[in-house]
Design a protein that fits this description.
4 domains; alpha+beta; Immunoglobulin-like; 35 strands; 5-stranded antiparallel sheet; 561 residues
Length: 561
């Protein structure tokens, strides 16, 4: 039996790559998260409620008053542009301080007719021993002083100020000894702490350290320099130092006995999940289906997550696609995500079972091996209804006539002219039919090309701005960004780079101010084209609400509760 794919079946194969490009997994509508965990009872922290749309009613924070002192709230509308893709969201933030120590679950927050996810946070007993000078001091701490190769260690610097300071500057520490990758987990954030009955404003910066070899990583003291405002007078420049830190890095432990070839993957939390483009229960021969396998590891860089090989099975063919890598900043550090994508096409009708998938990983908190698993998947591959089945010709009885050699030659010669005539006529008829079909087929009317979408026009201007920045062409950068601004704000376009800097987030706003200083600054400014090009790859449009535009001339140092 011979099977031939029809035109429609071949067309399905051509759609495989298009399916991958169009596929995207839907995220949560409402996300709740905290900026720090754990938190001391005498420290405030921030709860964020992020809604992936605009025009929603304000969240109901009344459920928080049972376990927390609820402080000031604010609202921010964000428009984010990453490589030409535009997304909009609304973020509400509220300052909280716990009423008691222990593990507390922040309840789900209601926004309209939807609810956020609950969040669990650890509240520690308050610390009342401020080191160093009582007015200003700096501390540093590690979440783990002993770890393994490639396992995340969080290094946190805290600057406590009970008085105002001028010209502050933080000198980052130096990492030496064993080789390590150091990544910034978050931008500098501020909150309130009460020590010995005195209120301090705390600035905190956290780094994720990933040792790449066994040994010790030495961290020099972090230095904070500032002039202190005391009793109405400004002192000379003072230097405050934190204590040095040392990380002991152990070698990679042996793999578990059941998985001798397991790749080394240390994490604080690991999630293994899969998403199918549609229900994989039934699949017809020749039809494509896509499978996305995602590894989400807290405390791991996305580039260090190993490749997930899709298990093979008879009856289907598997085509791997380019993986997707993502980095998410959480209170517990960096969460790396790797999504491996595969297309599957059934080639033989019948029941196909894709084996289960096991992923061993090292639990940093427990110091032990764990195994994340996906169950086996059964697929019923059905025959394609459009397949043409070509049966072999039936054998027929032929009467054998014995003839001599001369008679056989005469029969062959007599049959040749008629065979040639029949083949010639068939070819002429086929050419005639093709000519008639070609001349009578309907002509396609030429259509004007559709207009270029707005987001593609914006992406072109941003790309031109990055190219000009890398080439050191300040004039080209200004022109491209102002062209982009006219598309973003058609009713009130910015007329200068300085005006544009006020409407975008850092670090792009800072780089645009430097660019503006070239033309208008007294000293010509200090502009770095590479830094500006990097800032243009990911930034947010800041659109403050009417309530947030009312700014007091002398804002309070600390949030009120």
């Amino acid at each position: 039996m011979v099977r031939a794919f029809t035109t429609r079946t071949r067309g399905r194969l051509a759609l495989v790559l298009a399916m991958f490009a169009a596929y995207s997994s839907a995220g949560a509508e409402i996300l709740a998260r905290v900026d720090r965990d754990p938190v001391e009872q005498n420290e405030s922290f921030t709860l964020e409620i992020i809604v992936n749309s605009t025009g929603n009613p304000a969240p109901d924070f009344s459920a928080l008053e049972t376990d927390f002192f609820v402080g000031q709230t604010s609202q921010l509308s964000n428009t984010r542009i990453v490589n030409g893709a535009i997304s909009r969201s609304m973020t509400w933030t509220v300052a909280l301080r716990a009423r008691r120590a222990g593990t507390i679950t922040i309840p789900a927050i209601t926004v309209g007719n939807q609810q956020s996810n609950p969040v669990t946070i650890r509240i520690l007993e308050p610390s009342n021993k401020p080191p160093g000078e009582a007015d200003v001091f700096i501390t540093s701490e590690l979440d783990f002083s002993e770890t393994y190769v490639q396992a995340q260690v969080l290094y946190t610097i805290k600057i406590y100020r009970a008085v105002a300071t001028r010209q502050p500057a933080l000198r980052e520490p130096v990492f030496s000894g064993a080789e390590a990758l150091v990544e910034t987990v978050n931008d500098e954030r501020s909150y309130e702490a009460i020590l010995n009955g005195r209120a301090y404003n705390v600035s905190e910066v956290t780094y994720a350290v990933f040792p790449q070899e066994s040994g010790e990583v030495q961290i020099s003291p972090a230095r904070f320099e500032a002039r202190v405002l005391r009793d109405g007078r400004i002192t000379g420049r003072k230097v405050f130092e934190s204590e040095p830190q040392t990380i002991t890095v152990n070698p990679v432990p042996p793999p578990p006995a059941d998985y001798p070839n397991a790749a080394w993957l240390p994490a604080r939390d690991l999630r293994l999940s899969e998403v199918w483009s549609r229900d994989p229960g039934e699949l017809r021969v020749g039809e494509p289906i896509s499978r996305h396998i995602t590894v989400s590891a807290l405390g791991q860089l996305e580039t260090q997550i190993p490749v997930i090989e899709a298990p093979l099975a008879d009856g289907v063919r598997i085509y791997p696609d380019k993986p997707s890598l993502q980095r998410i900043m959480e209170s517990g550090g960096i969460r790396g995500e790797r999504t491996d994508r595969y297309a599957m096409i059934g080639i033989t009708a019948g029941e196909v079972t894709l084996p289960g998938l096991d992923l061993p990983w090292w639990d940093i908190d427990a110091g032990a091996w764990r195994v994340a698993s996906l169950p086996a998947v059964s697929i019923n591959v059905l025959p394609d209804q459009d397949l043409i089945i070509v049966e072999p010709p039936q054998e027929t009885a032929v009467e054998m006539i014995e003839v001599d050699d001369d008679a056989e030659a005469a029969l062959i010669v007599a049959a040749l002219p008629w065979k040639l005539i029949a083949e010639t006529l068939a070819a002429v008829l086929a050419l005639t039919w093709l000519s008639w079909w070609w001349s009578s087929r309907p002509r396609r009317e030429e259509r004007e090309p559709p207009p270029v979408p707005l987001h593609k026009q914006q992406a072109r201007h941003l790309k031109a701005a990055r190219k000009a920045a890398l080439a050191g062409d300040a004039r080209g950068v200004r022109q491209a960004l102002l062209d982009w601004g006219r598309l973003q704000w058609p009713d009130n376009p910015p007329r200068s780079v300085g005006r544009l800097a006020e409407a975008v987030s850092a670090p792009l706003s800072e780089e645009l101010q430097k660019l503006s200083g070239i033309s208008y600054g007294p000293d010509g400014g200090d502009w770095n084209g590479e830094a500006l090009a990097k800032a243009l790859r990911s930034f947010a449009i800041v659109e403050k609400s009417a309530a947030s535009k009312q700014v007091d001339l002398l804002p309070p140092l600390l949030p009120k509760f």
